[in-house]
Amino acid sequence: MDLDVFVTAHRTEWDRLEHLLHRGRRLTGTEADELVALYQRTATHLSLIQSSAPDPMLTARLTQLVARARSTVTGTRRATWRDATRFLTAGFPAAVYRSRHWWIPTAVLSTLLAALMGWWIGTHPEVQAAIAAPEDLRRMTSPGGEYETYYSSHPAASFAAQVWTNNAQAAAMCLVLGAFLCLPVIWILFVNVLNLAVGIGLMSSAGRLDTFLGLVLPHGLLELTAVFVAAGTGLRLGWTVIDPGPQTRRSALAQQGRAAIGMAIGLALVLFVSGVIEGFVTPSGLPTWARIAIGVAAELAFLAYVYVLGGRAARAGEAGDLDATERSAELPAAA
Predict the structure, then answer these.
(1) pLDDT tens for residues 60-112?
(2) How far is CA 287 from the centre of its chain?
C-alpha cells in the first residue's frame, strides 16, 4: 500500500471526523450519523495502516481519533449516588449473604480454635513461659497493664484510624490473596486467631478473663465478623480456582473477583464502625455491660442488614457483581 496516496485519499475524512468531535454535543441528527460512519471508516483505515504500512505519527493520530470517536459514540457511564445507594442496600449485603456458607463455618471453627488454644495456653505454664518472661507476663496482665492500657494509649481519633487501617488491610489481603489456592487466607486467619488465643490464655491464667472480654467484645464482635467474612470470601475465591463449576475458570474467577472487590469496599465501611467503637467506646468510662451492649447492638445490626436486606436482594437475583450491561461479553461455555 502506498501510504502517501492513502493519506491523500482519506485525509479529508479524518479532518472532518476531528471537526465533528470538536463540536461535541452540538451535532445535528445528520451530523451524528456522519460521525458514526466516519468513526467506522477511520477504525478500518487504522487497521489497514497498522497491518500494511505502519507509520508511528499517523498511527498515533488515528488511534487518538478512533478512541475519542468511540467514547463519543458509545458514551461513558458515570457513577452516581444511585449506584452507591444500590451497592449499600443490595449489592454488598447480597454478596455477604450469598457467601454465608463460607464465612459462617469459618467464624465457628476460628472461634472454637481460639477458645481451645486459649485454654491450652492458660492451663500450661510452660507454654506461657515460651511466650514471654514472667515479669513481662505480669506487666501485660496485671491491673493497669498493657492489655488494659493498649486501648487508651493514643488519642481516640488517631487510634481508631490506625485500627481501621490495619484491619481493612488484613481484610483486603484475605480477599485479594484468596486466589492463591486459599493458603495465604488460612495463614492470615490463623495469625488473628492466635493473637486472640494468647490474650485469652494469658488473662485467664491471671484470673482476669472477664476484664479481657470486657475490653475485646465491644468492638471485637463486629471486627471479627468482618474478618471472618473477608476470610470466607477469600476461601471461596480460592476454591473457584480449584473448582469453577459449570463456568470456565476465567469466567468464574472474574465473577467472584468482581464481587470480592465490592466486598472489600463494604467491609472497609464495617471495619470503620468497629474502629470507631474500639477508639471511643472500648477505652471509655462506661460500665462494662454498657460497652458490651453497644458491641452486641452493632453486631446484631450488621447481621440484620445482611439477612434482611441482603437476603431479599439475593432472592431477587442480586449477586454483588456488575450489571450484565457493564460486563464484558462472554462466549457460552460447553455443558
Answers:
(1) 888 888 888 887 777 655 556 777 888 889 989 999 999 999 999 999 999 99
(2) 35
Which residue type sits at 231?
A
Q: Is residue 334 helix, strand or coil?
A: coil
Residues 6 or more apart in contact with residue 171 via CB below 8 angstroms: 226, 227, 229, 230, 264, 267, 268, 271
Whether 214 and 288 have beta carbons less than 8 Å apart is answered as yes
Residues of the chain with pLDDT under 70: 1, 24-25, 75-80, 153-154, 156, 158-159, 321-335
Residue with cell 493520530: 61
Q: Whole-angstrom Cα distance, residue 10 to residue 4? A: 10
Give pairs for 109-117: CB < 8 Å, separation 24+.
Answer: 110/189, 110/192, 110/193, 110/224, 110/228, 110/231, 113/193, 113/197, 114/193, 114/196, 114/197, 114/200, 115/197, 115/200, 116/197, 117/193, 117/194, 117/197, 117/200, 117/201
237 close to 253: Cβ distance less than 8 angstroms? yes
Per residue in 109-146, pLDDT (tens digit) is 999 999 999 999 999 999 999 999 989 999 999 988 88
Give the 3-state secondary structure of residue 331: coil
Cell digits of residue 21: 468531535
Helix or strand (DSSP H, E) at 89: none
Residue 31: per-residue pLDDT: 82
pLDDT (0 to 100) of residue 24: 67
Closest CA to 211 of 151, 148, 274, 149: 148
